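Lab meeting prep.
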Amino acid sequence: MGRPEEQRERWNEAAERWRRNGAIVRELTAPVSRAMLDRASPLAGERWLDVASGVGDPAALLREKLVPEGTVVLSDLAHGMARTASEALGGTAPAVTAAAEALPFRSVFDGVTCRFGAMFFTDPPRAMDEIRSSLKPSGRAVFVVWGERERNPFFGEILAAVREAAPDAPVPAPDDPHPFRYAPAGKLAELLRSRGWTDVEDEPLRFDVAGPISQGEFWDFMRSMNAEIDKLAGELPEDGRAALRSDVERRVAPYFPEGTCRFPAEARLVSARRPASG
């Protein structure tokens, strides 16, 4: 597993790219944020924590539900990412630099959201204990993680192309931090149950990753957002990079029916509660 300092460095290095592309990322994953709020059912006046806030969603939608008396607090392992999320909300939400494994809160929040963050926790059991402890008794949490790679061609096609171009590149172990760590149905839910959470629900969330990226822009966008893909591509000779780009554009062509991207996608929507006592 990646160490916290390695993860922090990685995400601090990525922060500027995520800030630059934040609006696009929010549009691509907007259906996920809406589904999380539907499951979370936040109420005006409540206090919520958004863990691994990234580009500021679903925190921005949460804030709309909670104001004027309520609030959402942003948190991220990397200071650069916490700042990116804060800027996305116009600097109006408090932001805390803290790993999920070491949150500085106890029995403070009515709810917690974590969108596409749990896959990268360096110590998932401890992180789930910390998130639970940050909630008030009976407080609820909503997580979203990516589903199986085969059902997510937005990632799957480019990863397949990169693996063919760089067959000796290391492959993460199932429990290493990586996007599909909790893709198997029930895997994250079982972790939550094992850490004392109750009312655990796990269901597939199917949506389209759709937004203003053209087929010609797709490769550059993905390289800019994924340091590992960018590194692997950068290590190829010039003709290899050109061939990889061509292969990616060929593979993703079916997902640009009207000039902009529309990829079918599947995530897992997992919710749970802190017990009323304990």
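Slide two material, second protein:
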Amino acid sequence: MDNNMLLEVKDLSKAFPGVQALDHVSFDLKAGEIHCLIGENGAGKSTLIKCLGGVNIPEEGDIFINGEKVAINDPLESVEEGIGIIYQEFNLVPSLSVAENIYLAREDTKGKGGYILDRKTMYEKANAILTDIGFRNPDSSVMMWTYRTSQQQMVEIGKALSHDSKIMVFDEPTAVLTERETRNLFDVIKKLRERGIGIIYISHRLDEVLELADRVTALKDGKVTGTVVNEGNLNKDDLVAMMIGRKLEAYYPERYDTVEPDNVVFEVKNLTSPTGTFKNINFKLRKGEILGFSGLVGAGRTETMKAILGEYPYVTGEFYLHGEQMTDPSPYNWINKGLAMLPEDRKAEGLVLGMTVAQNISLPNFDKFSHRGIVDLKAQKQFIQETMDKMTVQPKDPDRLAVYFSGGNQQKIILAKWLAKNPDVLILDEPTRGIDVNAKMEIYKIMNDLTTQGISIIMVSSEMNELMGLCDRILVMYEGELCAEFTRDENGEYSEDEIGRAQAGALS
């Protein structure tokens, strides 16, 4: 064995009812290495990590740490073996202090019998750990809930380091971070690598993989499809081919010529919030157009969209659909008029996770298959099946709970629900966040096809390449205001540099 090898996974297999999640997977990690793990949703990435974390117990295969075979049967054993996992959903207790979270179940005590918490010592140790990884002026005595997301992530990293972890796993760590917070996280990860800590990094964002990875391993259908060394010559096509088994002819579909320039479907005038989160928002959306909203996190994009829908307060603002002013904007009224929204947080706001697909799709559509409050079950079943088929929801099981579908299929379920209402305008807020590359391509194609049906789309996205690849126009928000509008040049291209400058408020 390589003396520098921290972790070796050999022929790991794990099955769930009806699914072979891992099929003789082998994977290794060296000290001082960032080894990126990529693959579509359902490829087996999470199952592999949960096997390392003691959440899942494999039926076959072996795990070696520093050359010694280990058995990891629960999360505590994983921690004891020096593995720290920063899951996408943090394992923190909001009502405890930062220090108490870091040293949970390992608190420093004092006094006779050791029954009194030595908070001063815990605060000092926790502050030292956080400072060491680049947290500026930490105060570990405050309650965990007072920290924003990026700070909570640093606490998770500090907690893992307090266990003297030599192997650290990051699962989609930038999904909810701003660009600046992402850069700070990358600096921390690179410092950990310099200390000899082995990093397993999971991300759907291929630009991040290309920047960080020393090696990349791809999984597909529970099997390893390949491992490559990143010597600076990899590109997105290489990674996509590893994940889905084929090269991309085009990452984004060729945009159809569907825009009717003189046909304004939707217009917003002078939309302003009482707190200045957004101010003086004015724009027009044309029939068959995909209009992009760009801006850094905190620029006010999502709040603007929610205000349009009547879910966020505003002091001034007028909305016009087909030239008719909406005098009582609310989600219910907009849906009935022909405007619907796919929200940024699909799990909290877009779906009822504990309901089936059929129930989720049915919620706004009972008028399609009921009469005077009586549901025609046969008609409902046919409606649901046809709706799922149009969106190619997989698996085609209308009685399956929404929580058990992949992120891409959850987005399709939400789209299916609203498209059944025959809207004229769709607002899509971060429609591809947290979904794999193949699912993204499906969403892009769906959006492109919808415009051929005369539907107009407002798309909010934090991925600039996504906006440039899909949108007919791009509006940029900075500190709550629309500061720039971009269209394609004579070659059909956008200026990424100019859009980036506008996002940062640096346009002259």
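Talking points for slide two:
The chain has a mean pLDDT of 90.
The domain at 260-503 is CATH 3.40.50.300 (Rossmann fold).
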